[in-house]
Design goal:
Elements lengths: L1 E3 L2 H7 L9 E6 L5 E5 L3 E4 L11 H11 L3 E3 L17 H7 L3 E9 L5 E9 L6 E10 L4 H17 L8 E7 L7 E7 L6 E6 L3 E6 L5 E6 L6 E6 L5 E5 L5 E6 L5 E6 L6 E6 L5 E3 L7 E6 L5 E6 L6 E6 L5 E3 L6 E7 L5 E8 L2 E8 L5 E3 L5 E7 L5 E7 L7 E6 L5 E5 L4 E7 L6
Parallel strand pairs: 3-5, 3-6, 4-6
Antiparallel strand pairs: 1-11, 2-31, 6-7, 7-8, 9-10, 9-32, 10-11, 12-13, 13-14, 14-15, 16-17, 17-18, 18-19, 20-21, 21-22, 22-23, 24-25, 25-26, 26-27, 28-29, 29-30, 30-31
């Protein structure tokens, strides 16, 4: 049995989450990251004097910048000098600390109960200090975390030239054996906060995949007794069955232009790749051999797909042109590689490498051909790349006594973190596009 919850009601009317929030715990930092200090935001209630907000805006911003692996956010609680306005800044103080950039901000509660958040990004290497970015937002209380993530995006892009992905969300499957509905599909902020269940079932749920416009999620359900592919519209909660052939139906992947969806079927015996035109419903077989071909991931040109195939004996990553069916092998790293995820710029692939009884996340640089293993755990699986190509979320089992949890790693492998607080066995994480409201 499968139950869909109304996404419109949950996402737009209710400010609370349905589970206790998860949070990120750093396991490996980056010493060479750019130092920045985010000062505690000053909270002012226009009606009743000072008031503490339920959300620590400065802490969220500092955590976002730190989680990107690009910044080293200074623990401001130990600083003897904590400016609250630009005139308080002493450039020589920050110069001695080797910090050239700080963030100042205030949060006012307006007469209508909205929160007005203002911030300044300041270059302290100048004398006097120079404002290089500033903005202001008026939001309801339930959107405070989103406003903080938006500020993080703006700061991140200003200082790196890369769009921030802190407003992106992740979807994942939770499995708790003793629940009435042991399988649930969740959506949360990238850092694990604001978890919302959008589907729950007594039968397994697998392989969620976002559409590139962020409006739909495709996934595998076994509600009918065997695997089938469905697409759920997030605003309405409506679920449409799109593929329900005999045997295996799995591994859905929307094309970047949202016009097609690729998936794997075993209706002819072995697994092969198929493509459906979402407007006409027409299905076309892409691979046609006796090998197992699965786990498609689109290149940004909408013309090529990376996928897993054992046509060479062991599973490896291949690339196929959907128009000509020309095939090219991409991965060669020892033993086997599978579950490719192509970056949004098409320059690298994250994949799962199996070698000597362990399963880890590996990176294939498509520009140089270099392949490298980024993790060191017992069992890592289902990597998903952030829409700005800076971070990867994946599921991991560190030893035989633990369940699967979510981990975060930078795409260069230098920064690693654990997303704590989730309940049950958590698998199949997948990033949304840059922004999903």
């Amino acid at each position: 049995m499968q139950i869909s919850l109304s996404i419109m009601l949950i996402l737009y009317l209710y400010p609370f989450s349905l589970l206790a929030d998860m949070h990120i715990e750093i396991t490996c930092g980056v010493n060479t990251s750019y130092p920045i200090a985010v000062m505690p935001f000053e909270y002012v209630n226009n009606q009743c004097g000072k008031s503490e907000s339920d959300e620590d805006i400065a802490l969220i911003i500092a955590s976002d910048l730190r989680n990107s692996s690009k910044f080293n956010t200074v623990p401001v609680e130990y600083l003897p000098h904590k400016p609250t306005k630009i005139s308080d800044i002493i450039p020589t103080f920050w110069e001695k600390l080797g910090i050239n950039t700080i963030v100042l901000g205030t949060t006012h509660i307006s007469y209508n109960g909205n929160y007005i958040i203002s911030y300044h990004l300041i270059d302290t290497s100048r004398n006097p200090a120079l404002i290089i970015l500033e903005n202001q937002y008026s939001v309801e209380k339930k959107w405070l975390r989103h406003a903080a993530h938006t500020i993080s995006n703006e700061i991140f892009e200003k200082l790196t030239g890369i769009k921030g992905a802190f407003c992106a969300r992740i979807a994942y499957i939770s499995h708790i054996n003793d629940n009435k509905y042991p399988y649930e599909l969740y959506i949360s902020d990238y850092d694990g906060h604001n978890q919302i269940s959008i589907c729950r079932s007594t039968e397994p749920l697998m392989s969620p995949a976002w559409s590139s416009d962020g409006e739909k999620i495709a996934y595998v359900t076994f509600d009918s007794g065997h695997s089938e592919l469905v697409v759920q519209t997030l605003r309405t909660g409506l679920i449409n069955n799109i593929v329900n052939f005999p045997n295996h139906n799995g591994a859905p992947a929307f094309s970047p232009d949202c016009k097609k969806i690729a998936f794997a079927l075993s209706k002819t015996g072995s697994l092969n790749l198929y493509i459906m035109d979402l407007e006409s419903g027409e299905i076309r077989q892409l691979t046609k051999n006796r090998s197992n071909n699965t786990e498609p991931s689109w290149f940004p040109d909408n013309k090529h797909i990376a996928y897993t195939s054992d046509q060479g004996g062991k599973p490896q990553i291949y690339k196929i042109n959907i128009n000509t069916a020309d095939i090219q092998r991409l991965s060669w790293l020892h033993t086997s590689n599978q579950n490719p995820q192509v970056s949004s710029d098409g320059t690298f692939i994250m994949m799962v490498n199996r070698h000597q009884g362990r399963q880890n996340i590996a990176k294939l640089n498509l520009l140089t051909g270099r392949e490298e293993i980024l993790t060191d755990v017992l069992l890592a699986d289902t990597p998903s790349i952030a829409p700005n190509n800076t971070m990867v979320v994946y599921s991991s089992i560190k030893d035989f006594t633990t369940t699967s949890n979510l981990e975060l790693i930078s795409t260069d492998g230098h920064f690693k973190a654990h997303i704590k607080g989730g309940k049950g066995d958590i698998r199949f994480p997948t990033w949304s596009p840059l922004y999903v409201k």
